[in-house]
Each structure stands twice: as C-alpha cells, then as structure tokens.
Amino acid sequence: MLQNNAFTGALFLFGIFYNSWIMGLGAILGAVTSTLAAYFFKNNKEDIQNGLYGFNGTLVGIALFYFFEINLLLVIISIIGAVLSSAVMYYMHTRKLSPFTFPFVLSAWIIMLMIQLLNLVPWATNAVSSAVKINILPSLSMGFGQVMFQASIITGLIFFLAILVNSRRAAFYGLAGSLLGMLAAMVFSFPVNLINIGIFGFNGVLCGIAFSEKNKLSWALALVSIVISVLIMSGFNSLSLIALTAPFVFASWITLGLRKVILNRFSVVNSRQQFKK
After folding, report:
1. Which residue range is the domain that position 44 belongs to?
2. Which residue, 126, 149, 180, sits at the end of a domain?
C-alpha cells in the first residue's frame, strides 16, 4: 500500500495470516521469489531493499493462492508469476513510468489466462454474501482488507493501523477512499453484497493513499481517481472479468494525466500574466 516501513509490512503480513494462513504463505512465497529475482537480475540494491521488487510479487502469491486450489503445480506457477512481476517492475521503473501495482496485475492476468487455457489448476470456490442492506463499518474496514484479498473486518482494521503507524495522512486518505468508494457505488446502485465486502472500496483506498500528497490539489485528485476507479471496477464486474487492482492503476494514470494538463495550463497562464507585467 505504498508504505516504505518494515513494521507496517510486518503488520500487513500478520493481518493476512490472521484471516488466512494459506494466503499468508502465498504472500511470503511471492515476496521472497520476486525479491530474489531482482537480486539475480542485479537490479538496484537500494530499490530492492525498499521493497520495490517485492510488493507486486507478494500480491501475485496472495492472488493465485486465493483464486486457485493449492497444489505443487500452483506453487511453481506462483513462483513464475512473481518473477515475471519483478521483470515488469524493472522495465517500468527504469523508464520512469508510474507502475503502482500494474506489474502484479499484468503478471497475474497472464498466469490466470495460461491456467485457464491449459486447464492446469482448478479454480477455488469463494462464496459471496447475498446481503441486501449496506453495512457501513464492515464495508469500510474490508475496503482495506480487500487490497490483499482479505474479506475480514479485523484484518482490514489491522491494515488501517499498519498504515497509521507509518503515515497518519495516508491512513486517513485511505479511509476516505474506502468511504467515498462505497458511497459512489451506492449512488450508482451497484450490488449491495459487493459493496459490503469492500469490492468498490479497496481501489479507492489505494487511490486515496496514492494522492495523499501535501498540496492544494491532493483532495481533488484523490476524489477524481476514486470515482473513476469505482466506474472502472463496475465495468470489470459487468463483463465478469477479474479486475484485481487494475481500476486503481488505470484511475491513477488517468488522474496523473489530468494533473499534468492542469499544471501545464496553470504554468502557461502564469507565464502570460508575467509577460504582460
């Protein structure tokens, strides 16, 4: 969740294990594999130590252990996916792009498509509640939990506290993201059961954190990206596609593009005013 803090990371891992020891093992497998791959390819050591080549692999491991039944073949496939995420991260990072969690998304999509086409591993059965009323507090908490596929109120709270340890600003921007994501989903009358388990909140959490900068535009940019992420998430759901954190990534890229346009225009206006003076 964009937090460069080892203790925060340890709390994230604790929260995952609290809800699912299986996904906890997937997280460790992904983190270790993608980090070792970065060392093997001789990537920048400081970037590796800061976790830049570990977090996408972590998400790959969690996702594959969530969506598929666990066996030896899946472990091998997860290792391949984690290594791929590290390679994609290196490509984007060296070209000064804004990867966010796109290396995870792309790697996981490729691996899932391969598994589906070759029928390598059975899909796991993950039940979804059939609630008809909005449960605000559980939804807010699970907005944090679902960033790492954890449909647990307690795990969501642990994730929030983990971010709070590192940055109060990021924590409350993330909380606002979960709330606004939920409210936007309610305004657009999206499925209540999905709102309750944080499906429309977790991308908002990431958007809020990503734009939790100390400037005048931060709240506006965060709000824009959150709403866009909800709409993109709805599009994925309507097409029955697995979105992962793609709505966050795409919404952030769109918002960054808008910020660049705004700042460029503002710069042009200032230049004209100074010229007239």
Report:
1. 1-126
2. 126
Percentage of residues of the chain with pLDDT beyond 90: 74
Helix (H) or strand (E) holding 134: none
Domain count, the chain: 2
Structure tokens at 152: 């647990």
Rounded mean pLDDT, 260-273: 66
Q: What tokens does 145 get?
A: 């939990």
Together in a domain, 73 and 3:
yes
Return the residue matching tokens 């030896």. 72
Task: Look up the CATH number of the domain holding residue 74.
Answer: 1.10.3430.10
Q: How far apart are CA 84 and CA 89, in angstroms?
A: 9
The pLDDT-based confidence of 25 (bands split at 50, 70, 90) is: very high
pLDDT band at 218 (very low <50, low <70, confident <90, very high): confident
Q: 191: which 2 tokens? A: 């499925």
| C-alpha–C-alpha distance, residues 3 and 159, integer Å | 11
User: How far is 21 from 23, CA to CA, in rounded Å?
Assistant: 6
Q: Are residues 188 and 110 in the same domain?
A: no
Question: How far apart, in Å, do the first and last CA atoms of the chain sit?
Answer: 46
Sign of CA dihedral 141, 144, 147, 148: negative
| Neighbouring-strand partners of residue 123 | 68
Closest CA to 68 of 106, 118, 32: 118
241 in the same domain as 170: yes
pLDDT digits (tens, 9 = 90+) for 77-103: 999 999 999 999 999 988 989 999 999
3-state secondary structure of 262: helix
Residues forming a β-bridge with 68: 123
Q: Which of 88, 252, 129 is nearest to 142 (CA)?
A: 129
Phi, psi of 123, rounded to the nearest 5 degrees: -75, 145
